Each structure stands twice: as C-alpha cells, then as structure tokens.
Amino acid sequence: MKILVTGNQGYVGPVLGRHLRRVFPQARLIGFDTGYFALCTTGAAVSPERVYDAQLNGDARDIDATLLQGVDAVVALAAISNDPMGATYEAATDAVNRGASLRLAELAAASGVGRFVFASSCSVYGFAPGAARKESDPLNPQTAYARSKIETERALAAMDRQGMTTTCLRFATACGMSERLRLDLALNDFVASAVAARRIIVLSDGSPWRPLIDVADMARAVEWALLRTPENGGPLLSVNVGADSWNHQVRDLAEAVAAAVPGAQVNFNQAAQPDTRSYKVDFGLFSRLAPNHQPEMTLARSIARLKQGLEAMGFDDANFRASTYMRLKMLEAHRNAGRLDGDLRWTADAFGGA
Ligand SMILES: NC(=O)c1ccc[n+]([C@@H]2O[C@H](COP(=O)([O-])OP(=O)(O)OC[C@H]3O[C@@H](n4cnc5c(N)ncnc54)[C@H](O)[C@@H]3O)[C@@H](O)[C@H]2O)c1
Fold this sequence. Notes:
By secondary structure, this protein is α/β, with parallel strands linked by helices. It has helices at 12-23, 83-88, 90-110, 144-158, 186-197, 215-227, 250-260, 284-289, 299-312, 327-336, and strands at 2-6, 28-33, 54-57, 73-76, 115-121, 127-133, 165-171, 173-175, 199-202, 209-214, 236-241, 247-249, 265-268, 278-281. α1 (12-23) links the parallel β1 (2-6) and β2. α1 crosses α6, α5 (186-197) packs across α9 (299-312) and α7 crosses α9. The protein is globular. The model has no long low-confidence stretch (mean pLDDT 96). Bound molecules: nicotinamide-adenine-dinucleotide (NAD). Residues 7, 9-13, 33-37, 59-61, 77-81, 96, 100, 119, 121, 171, 173-174, 182, 185, 327 line the site of nicotinamide-adenine-dinucleotide.
C-alpha cells in the first residue's frame, strides 16, 4: 500500500506517521508539506519525517497528477488549521482547506486511489447549545476555518469520486504531545501554562463545552478510515471522531490540569464575552462503525504525557501565547521577515533571494 499524507509536517502528522509505520510496516509512506512549521519541532530526537519513505516539499494548491501516481490511499491533513489563522488569512484558508483538498480528491479519484481521508472538524457545529450533535443535525459554522471544512465535505459529496471510498473525519479538538506541539489548543495551553507559570488562565468563564481527542487516538481513527470498506458506513461518510466521555466543559479541563500540576492555580475570566464556540458532540456513529478503533487515551494520561513532554523540553516560557508555539505567530514571523506573502506563499526571499 502506498499512502500519501499531505500536511504531515504539522502537529498531527508526526504522531500519525509513527502510527502508520507501526500498523502498516510494509506500506510506502509519502509525506507532502509546504513546511510552514517544519522547524517547530518539540523534543524530537530525530526528524519526525524519518518514518516516511519520502518527504516531498510543495504547495497543495499547485499539485498535479504525478503526485498521485501509484498511490492507493490519501490522507488530507494540509490546512490552515485554526480560527485565528482563518480570520487573518481568509482567502488562503479557503484556497488551501477547500480548494486544494478538493483538487487533491479529484486527481486521486481520476488516478484510481481507493481511499481518501479528509481531516474535517467538529467546529462545523459551531455554537450549538443543548444536546450533543449528531452528524445529521444542522450545522452552524462560525468561522472561515469551520466553513472551509464543511464546504469541502459538501464538494466531496457532489463530485464524481469514481469509486473512491471517502471518509471525512470530524475530529474533536486535538490535544496531547507531539514532536511538533501546538500550544494554541485548549488543553495544551492549560498544561503549558501550569508547567511554566503554575497558573492557568481561562479566557472564558469556563462554561463552554469542548470535546477533545488525543492525537494518538486521531491516528488510530485515520488507520480505521484507511481500512474502511464502503459496506461499513457507505462510499462517502462524514463521522464525528472522539468519544462521548471526552465531552468536557472548559472549566473541567482547567481543573483537571490544576490537579495534575502541583501548585497550579486556575483563573477564570468571569467578564468574558460568551464563547461562540461551544458544542457537545455525539460520537455514537463512530463507536458503532469503528468498535476496534475507539479512543483509548484518558484525559489524565493526555495531561501527564503533555506535562512530561514539556518538562523534558525544559519548557518555561510563561509568555508562550506570544510565541511560535502558536501557529498564527509562526506564520506572522514568516510574514514579518518577508518569507511568506499575504497568500501564504513562500517568497524568493525565504530562500536567500534565490
Ligand atoms: N488540531 C486540531 O485540533 C484539529 C481538529 C480537527 C481537525 N484538524 C485538522 O487536522 C489537520 C492537521 O491539523 P494539525 O493540528 O496537524 O495542523 P498544523 O497546522 O499543525 O499542520 C497543518 C500542516 O499543513 C501544512 N500546510 C498548510 N498549507 C499547506 C499548503 N498549501 N500546502 C502544503 N502543506 C500545507 C502546514 O505546513 C502544516 O504542516 C488539519 O486539516 C486540521 O484542520 C485538526
């Protein structure tokens, strides 16, 4: 099996690469990424891409059919991957997350790829008070990022997939340790803050609901989608990926972190504007379709691994919200240095004016 993973040099990619190498030891793994965060490794002793058989550099907006030659399965991770980046780079978010993913799917279908896995997001439910949302419930995307994900799902449904089994994994918010850790994710932020400053600053009153999934469990879900047959869920499937027991309120996450880091205090912002992103998600379909690939991590283990990973890095940056551990800050650093343009394309200056 030859598996192409786009966007593999981010947060999820290193954990996914190790997992795919372990479960498909004979597979040929090809990574493809533009490398915005390639140098943002965290505690990696070797290049996270070493588990891939080949690492290609390129922009997902420019791919052509040669990339798909001989490929059996595609995992489309490449994206401008959160709301703040989507708000700042709205056109690029649409072009990469929707445009390039759709083009990749079309080229894949035309070249006979059997499985296409798209990294979607539970943020398509947006502000959703009340009962946990099922896949068939109305959506309420609040941001350019969330819209890019649901528009891609819809376009994948409308296109001629030519028999390509297609799975849109609507992941809960990711958390957990990775060799390219992001700290712009709720739980990761709390653990980093507790480790560096013994305090956790919650930017809301703590009431929003936020389902989470550990990156290790995201990798197991991708494995399932790569093996899925159309008899199990249909030729095109959108499925919430996470576990009902991981639907937490933000305040519970903060308190769980405080309990795991001696001396850490939690501060809530009681004056905060109501969070426009709050949803509980129903993961029943995923548990029925993928009984052997259900999340295995517990919140306590995710927190413990993050704490251990950050401590092993000697992490002590209490001001990390202004640092390149935040994906948007890394893009801004590239922009301010003239390495990226406003469309998030590399400039000639990025490569020494070559
Ligand atoms: N992290 C989460 O909470 C979460 C939750 C749900 C879904 N997802 C989705 O999972 C995927 C991976 O997320 P992540 O946390 O690893 O994000 P990330 O930002 O760490 O990684 C995304 C990768 O895509 C690459 N990329 C961006 N634009 C590209 C382009 N034009 N061409 C080639 N590569 C490009 C980046 O260089 C980066 O390596 C994304 O699609 C994201 O939307 C993530």
